[in-house]
Amino acid sequence: PEPVVIEEAPVVPEVEPLPSLSQSDEFVSIKAVEMADGMKIEPLMVEQDLVRHFVVFVDNIAQGELARKVSPMKAPNRVFTVSEITNKTYLNPDSYHRYDLYADLVNGLDEEQLAKTYQELTPLLGEAFEELGYGDMSFNDRMVEAIDVMLDAPIIDSPIELDGVSV
Q1: What are phi and psi of 140, to 5 degrees?
Q2: In degrees rounded to 5, what are phi and psi of residue 162?
Q3: What does the alpha-carbon distance between residue 114 and residue 129 come to, in Å, rounded to a whole number?
Q4: β-pairing verdict for 88-91 and 161-162
Q5: What's the pTM?
């Protein structure tokens, strides 16, 4: 008789089940910390509705708006400053440095881990996006639109003059 060959089933990595959207904050926070790869981002993240904040934030960016109150990250704790030059008000270049930590965070993300986490969280992102009432597009489509808006943002090398009552 011929020997019996038993083939082993391929090892499939265990996937952690997703929590419900309403119960996802701790899960998503852990995933964000993993993506940060050692950077201490915990104090920067909002504590509640991380997924919903992220989805609304992306949706606003895709529309050319930046709404700080729905950001998944807390605002910088340094004060926005201006410079007065010849009776005109300009953005103080030091104000840009308020965002260095955030830029370093984005720059330091592991792209492979980011893609894997985005894919894993897609059902939660989609559910939060559906809550906004978009029935004709996916969150991924909206994310691509937001990325396009960010890539089209001009790089401004000259001083930025400010006007208005609340500078």
Answers
A1: -60, -40
A2: -110, 145
A3: 19
A4: antiparallel
A5: 0.79
Residue 16, token pair as written in the block:
């952690």
pLDDT digit string (tens) for 36-87? 877 888 888 888 999 999 999 999 999 999 877 788 888 877 787 888 888 8
Residue 163 near residue 84, CB atoms below 8 Å:
no
- CA 134 – CA 153 distance, rounded (Å): 25
User: Phi, psi (5° rounding) for residue 88?
Assistant: -125, 150
- In angstroms, rounded to a whole number, what is the distance separating the alpha carbons of residues 94 and 97? 5
- What percent helix, strand, coil does the chain show, rounded to 5? 50, 5, 45
Per-residue model confidence as pLDDT tens digits over 112-149: 888 999 999 999 999 999 999 988 899 999 999 999 99
Cα separation of 123 and 103, whole Å? Answer: 27
Query: 22: which DSSP letter?
Result: G
d(CA 18, CA 120): 8
Using alpha carbons, select from 139, 101, 137, 125 the residue that is nearest to residue 18: 125
Q: Please answer whether residues 78 and 55 qualify as being in contact, where contact means their C-beta atoms are separated by less than 8 angstroms.
A: no
Beta bridge partners of 161: 90
